[in-house]
Design a protein that fits this description.
Helices cover 15% and strands 34% of the residues. The protein is α+β, with helices and mostly antiparallel strands and 331 residues long. The chain has two domains: 139 residues, Immunoglobulin-like (Sandwich), CATH 2.60.40; 113 residues, Immunoglobulin-like (Sandwich), CATH 2.60.40.1850.
Amino acid sequence: MRNRILAAALCALLLSSMLVSCGGNAPAESAPPSASDSPAESAAPAESAAPAESAAPDESDAPDESAAPENDKIADESEMTVIEEVGDPNMIPVYAENMKDGEYPIQVECSSSMFPIEEALLTVSGGKMTVSMTMGGTGYLYVYMGTPEEAVAADEAAYVPYTEAADGRHVFTVEAEALNVPTDCSSFSKNKEKWYARTLVFRADSLPLDSFADGFVKTPETLALADGEYTAEVALSGGTGKATVTSPAKLIVSGGTVTAVIEWSSSNYDYMIVGGEKYLTVNETGNSVFEIPVSVFDFGMAVRADTTAMSTPHEIDYTLFFRSDSIAPAQ
């Protein structure tokens, strides 16, 4: 009997030990896993380890390092003043072969007021033309006859440095392939160290008529019109573009001299300057009317007109173009 009791007690003890052992392992299945046991966290997810933005870009994403210095040397539109249109579609190109050798003062139009050309001298020699431009400031070190992009790509030997005039002003002497043609020019700023885009027009209509090769321009003498009254189509350019003149205009021919009757679209003009001479209006009411000499046909004729429409009288440069093929007897 005693042996049975001992056996039963031993079995109970063994069973109790087994239950305790099983109880210690049970919580591991029901309890939530700890952060250290999570496979996702321990594997360092992509968001925390290497975000897409910080990943090293391939070559197609890399900036073009060769282009950056070029852009740094070219002024963009935000760094420039208002760009003006220069030139006139009525102008005809003038080449060295159309000129007589010599030196002539010439007017130069520029698309930017920040590149002030105070005076210029045209030199024609050996079939080539050069223009020496005296600047109103000393802010530019070089010019290049081309676009800023072309200037950056060009060898520095192609840059035109300034020479210093006796009064300290900078002078740039450039080659001119043609007059009356808008021409790209770039100027390099001393302070900004950048190229600025300009457009220049060397105005042939500012030259004396005897500077052109014989027969190149039509004059009253070459047309040999008989005395009488005629009409001819005339076009006006310059100023703000708002003013016009009546076309066709009346022409009066006497002794080989041609006088045009010019009527403006405004009554605010009180005098005109043609060939250095001042001409006053010939009427008292209505739009301003002037009688001025005509020196050339089929070619720009530079004139200046004074307007009183502004707060103070102001002289404005214009160009008149008289078409010889439109000349007809007045009706």
